[in-house]
Amino acid sequence: MKPAQNQASRQAIRHTLRQQIRQQRRTLSAEQQTQAAHDLLARFQQSPTFSQAQHVALYLAYDGEIDTQPLIHWLWQQGKHVYLPVLHPFSPGHLLFLHYTATTPMHTNRYGIAEPKLDVRAVKPVMELDLIGTPLVAFDDTGQRLGMGGGYYDRTLNPWHQHRYGPQPVGLAHDCQQVNVLPTEAWDVPLPDILTPSHHFHW
């Protein structure tokens, strides 16, 4: 099979996996989502590396993603700083991270996802974050991550991937998002840690 055909085949498989896994997590009941969110918090609290972080980037759940609200509220209670991703207004495909509090003005971005209204005073340079809680669609037994396809987090995490420089990434997911093997591309950034309600995977 020619390289172009190989890539087309991988892309087709990745597209199918995205559809299947997104559908699986969307079918979780409200009770299952609530339990998963609290179990995720417990996993986070059990890791000294994570629980001691002071500047933590997270995301607001969308499209069946595991809910981060209990984790966010716990971090606030501990006096820690939480940041949310914002689509970069001048650099397509990149993210900014803004300080997030209970009173942060919000709006909906072009993907239908809630994010803080852009305020340069609230921007935290990525390299000053301690931890980036990373959303994902699927992950495999080696820590490979399949995102939504925009490459935002692959670009954000590339310095860490190449040089182990910058905030430590940790994937956050439901247990049903695990697959045996993901077809990968050169730009994919594997994760060293993934938390699910029932496991802390570490590579």
UniProtKB/TrEMBL annotation:
<feature type="binding site">
    <location>
        <begin position="145"/>
        <end position="153"/>
    </location>
    <ligand>
        <name>ATP</name>
    </ligand>
</feature>
<keyword id="KW-0547">Nucleotide-binding</keyword>
<dbReference type="GO" id="GO:0035999">
    <property type="term" value="P:tetrahydrofolate interconversion"/>
</dbReference>
<comment type="similarity">
    <text>Belongs to the 5-formyltetrahydrofolate cyclo-ligase family.</text>
</comment>
<dbReference type="Pfam" id="PF01812">
    <property type="entry name" value="5-FTHF_cyc-lig"/>
</dbReference>
<keyword id="KW-0067">ATP-binding</keyword>
<dbReference type="GO" id="GO:0046872">
    <property type="term" value="F:metal ion binding"/>
</dbReference>
<keyword id="KW-0460">Magnesium</keyword>
<feature type="binding site">
    <location>
        <position position="60"/>
    </location>
    <ligand>
        <name>substrate</name>
    </ligand>
</feature>
<keyword id="KW-0479">Metal-binding</keyword>
<protein>
    <recommendedName>
        <fullName>5-formyltetrahydrofolate cyclo-ligase</fullName>
        <ecNumber>6.3.3.2</ecNumber>
    </recommendedName>
</protein>
<feature type="binding site">
    <location>
        <position position="65"/>
    </location>
    <ligand>
        <name>substrate</name>
    </ligand>
</feature>
<dbReference type="GO" id="GO:0030272">
    <property type="term" value="F:5-formyltetrahydrofolate cyclo-ligase activity"/>
</dbReference>
<keyword id="KW-0436">Ligase</keyword>
<dbReference type="GO" id="GO:0005524">
    <property type="term" value="F:ATP binding"/>
</dbReference>
<dbReference type="InterPro" id="IPR037171">
    <property type="entry name" value="NagB/RpiA_transferase-like"/>
</dbReference>
<dbReference type="InterPro" id="IPR024185">
    <property type="entry name" value="FTHF_cligase-like_sf"/>
</dbReference>
<dbReference type="GO" id="GO:0009396">
    <property type="term" value="P:folic acid-containing compound biosynthetic process"/>
</dbReference>
<dbReference type="InterPro" id="IPR002698">
    <property type="entry name" value="FTHF_cligase"/>
</dbReference>
